[in-house]
Amino acid sequence: MFKVLRKSITSWVGILLLALALGALVFTLFQPSGPAGAPGATGPVLATVGGKAITESEYMRTIDRAVARERERAPQMTNPDFIAAGGGEMVLQQMIGAKAIDSFGEANGMVISRKMVDGEIASIPALQVNGKFDDATFRRLLQNQRVTEAELRESIASDLKRRQLLQPIVSSSSVPRGMAEPFAALLLEVRRGAILPIPSIAMPEPGTPSDAQLQKFHDENRKAYTLPERRSFRFAEFDSASLLAKAKPTAADVRKYYDSHPEEFGGLESRHVRQVVLRDEAKAKALVAAVRGGKPFAEAAAAEGFAASDTDLGPQTVEGLKTSINDNVAKAVFALKPGAVSDPVQSSLGWHVLDVTRIVPAAPLPFAVASAGIEKKLADEKLADLLSQTVASAEDRLSGGESLADVARSLGIAVQTSPALTADGRLFDADFRVSRIEQPLLPKAFDADQSEGPQVVDLGNNRYALLEVVDVIAPELVPMAKIRSDVATAWAIKARSDAAKAEADRIAAAVSKGQSLAEATAGKRLPPAQQLAIRRLELTQMAQQGQQVPPPVVMLLNTPKGQARVIPAPGGQGWFVVKVDAVEPGDIAQAPQLVDAVRRSLVAEAGNEMGETFVRAIEREVGVVRKPEQLKAVNRRLTGAIVE
What we know:
This protein is an alpha+beta fold.
């Protein structure tokens, strides 16, 4: 753990990698993990966990969902990008951990009931309409995410097992204060040094390249000259606005609602009620006798252990009491006069002794005043129903084989066609010139499976679209001859960058051997070095506030005293030479409160690490066998072969 924590404080590269890892955890937390042999679990086996297989098809579906989720944040994300960043390995590890916990739970008698899973599903905000679970929304979301109900239930059950197993371990971690002190002191450390820029533009012109040089450069940078996957698609958008006229309630509907809901408009008498519920009828009769004998109701209730807040039911209507308790209690309350106490009234809870403190007569809001609000309420409800019905009907018709054009025509909406675009909205013409097109539907188009045909996609805010992927163009390598001038420009930029790197390496080596920056750069036309004094804590606070810490400053934290290091400038503009002149150790006496803050952070890290260690122990217990060659093969297919 020390190693991990030390890196997290001193290495901002480490922080970026940690962020990527956390992102992958989020992507795969809600991934189906059905039992071995479940429908769709086909293809080569990538790993076995406790006798259960993780197959290629399961892995590829999970990767697809992870990349689709990431595209919501970064539309340019592609399968190759995700795999290259280590996302595939992290996804597989999450799948292994999930299956290991499932196997461990089953072996130790853990049972997740259907009722528990139902409760989790019903509590998902995305599946609710007007605060209540909506089955049509549930089915539509399953279809959009290409997840079966069985897969979702299995995933939720697995997640409940993980929570039950890991929560006690994660929450029980502790870290002594003495362990936090060295890290707090490290945050207070001050470093002094200099940053020298070496711009590529300061280097000499590299000359004119030959065709052989350009072809070699093109071959070495195939990825840069490979057009990413492009997709063309047809779509037709619709929303609730087109249904407003149909949703308008009639005057009769508004009047009917007013007449049938008098309680909403003050049209019913209400009574402020207090009650005591006792299991024994004799005790209830004794309490009634005490109150009728002159003892205050609150005092008599307190003698039976009831506080004022326990007895106060607030204002109640007849129908409200009938619904919440029973008819006899409602009848008894509305037969009382203020200040009187009822005889004991029985219910399934016991014997109720009731007291009315105040009667509020009916004072109905005039219909003319209430009608506008009722009309809006009914229109909103009917609009939501109509939109849900329209979406469901469109889904049924598309799945039944109707074309996107026919369904769009019936809805009165126009069909549009998008040209072949990359995931981040780039359009390439015949000469490989690029332009950008704003197309909000791109993430949905890249998440769709062309083989599934047209579908309905949810765009949020009561907006939907019929969507059909027309063509998927695989990654394509552009021949050097067609983009010779672009390659020549890139070659020249790279040549000058290489020259700047060589100069930076020379200066760094000389400085590390004892020369000053002024001596090492004598006779060179370079920008002046910038002197800098920084404290780790300040940079940590910048990062927490979302500010970007310049890479040379990060390098200043990781370079030994008296040494120099080289780091690239952003955008390939050149290089930086970073030299550390002095390191002043931190003194925790200057900020004693920092130790407690660091300790809290370490406690959280320790809990996470304990949980991860426990999962690894479970994996060893149930047995895990990985198939790395099969994983490499499927990752190669996911990243797409370059067309020669």
